[in-house]
Amino acid sequence: MEQDEEWFETIPLPNSYIVRPRTTLQSPLYPINKIRDDICIKDSPLTGLDYLYNIRNYIWNRETNRFCGRDGLDWAKLGCYYSCFLFILGVISSSFVIVYILLLDKKTPRRLGNESALVFDNGINPGLGFRPQLYMDRTLLQWRTSRKTGHQSVAEMVDNVHQWGSTFGLVDTHHQQQIDCSAIKPELLINYFRQGLSCIFLTTDVKPEMVDNVHQWGSTFGLVDTHHQQQIDCSAIKPELLINYFRQGLSCIFLTTDVKPGPNPCSKPKNYGYNKGRPCVALKINRVFGWIPEPYQTKDEVPLEIRHLWQPIMKNFVLIKCFGQYPTDQDLIYQVDHISILGNKAIGGIPTYYFPFLNQPGYRQPFVWAQFVKVESNVLLNIICRAYAKNIRQSTNIEDMTGAVHFEIFFQ
Question: Helix-strand-coil percent breakdown of the chain, rounded to 5?
Fold first, then answer.
């Protein structure tokens, strides 16, 4: 024969075949003692067309009706096997997850204190949150005082604040709305009564230490929030006894009227000041399970930036203050009023009897109002608000938001 003639070892069958080079090595895929009628042995190296031909026949062999080397029955067996395998694996995995969930405490985290995951970030150091916040991933408060409805309007800001603040309502055990009459002028009370509202009255208002000894008649004086969760007047109970009530699932009464008894410029009837360019921003301390604040007890312990504002009455308060983040912002913010239970416009305060948070049903985060009474319009203002206590770490870096919150104000 001619030397350039190609030699093949084939079986003359009409079936399609796969081309492979001749070799003397025994392969588990192509054993020598077994004749394969779909294989062509070639002495010379395989060409590109041979590879393409092999790929085509592997994907779909029209002669044997095999897909990827398997016929329909083989694929059915394989699918049945993997279905059973994955089903059993899923059942085993799900059973482990269910057992783990059943062992978890629904109210108390497994790791607390220095074992908590918070320690790996900034330690157990609560920050602040603010409202209104139209988008959870944005900190810009932008609106037009002349725009009543629509996007970037007064109504948009007011509705956002009111929707959040409406969760602080209280009702009695018959689910009737209650108000704190001690914070309302007597001549105005008749208007509330005509609307069907009534005054808050608790057994703790008479004798706080006898809360646990309430008989059947006295139990009708209970108070619950709008989600029908039990509430108590913590201001009338000794601090060392509060933890026992919290462990029973009770939480402190907190009304919007507690922040500012009497007329409040930060209220819905006054549009929270957004229509007049005097915006009110609610500031709240983030919930950290079991965290108890340690207020400053002497003036020397207070940071220099608020030391001139400290008074002995603040020994039982977590202090909160807002100011411009940069010198330029401070020059454009002329007056900020803090409206809180503390009653000091220069600085806000939250009483320590609202802590610790123990995941009580119906727990309401106490807050303070910061009203920017006199600020420049048509200018982007960077605001930073900080919480102050001995166990709230403060950073000297103005960019560090540890124990603080940052937001921007821009209105026209």
Answer: 35, 20, 45
The answer to whether residues 309 and 296 touch, using CB atoms and an 8 Å cutoff, is no
Render the burial of 303-313: b for 16+ CB within 10 Å, e for the rest.
eeebeeebeee
Q: Give one DSSP letter per residue of 226-290, joined into a string.
A: TT--EEE-GGGS-HHHHHHHHHTT-EE---HHHHSSS--SSSGGGGGGGGGT--EEEEEEPP-BT
Q: Where are the domains of the chain?
A: 8-67, 113-411
Going by C-alpha positions, the residue among 355, 374, 375 that lies closest to residue 365 is 355
14-50 pLDDT tens trace: 445 555 555 444 555 544 444 455 555 566 676 777 7
205 CB neighbour count, 10 Å cutoff: 12
CA dist 273 and 266 (Å) reads 6
Helix (H, G, I), strand (E, B) or coil at 187: helix
What span, in angstroms and rounded, lies between the C-alpha atoms of 268 and 300?
Answer: 40
Cα(187)–Cα(409) distance, integer angstroms: 38
Question: Helix (H, G, I), strand (E, B), or coil: what is residue 99?
Answer: helix
CA distance 162 to 42: 83
Q: What is the pLDDT of residues 326-376, one digit of tens each?
A: 999 999 999 999 999 898 999 999 999 998 888 887 788 889 999 999 988
The whole-model pTM stands at 0.67
- Give dist(CA 97, CA 246) in Å, integer: 30
The tokens for 135 are 């988008």
Q: 3-state class of 386 per DSSP?
A: strand
CATH number belonging to the domain at 113-411, selected among 2.60.40.1660, 3.40.50.970, 3.30.200.100, 3.40.50.150: 2.60.40.1660
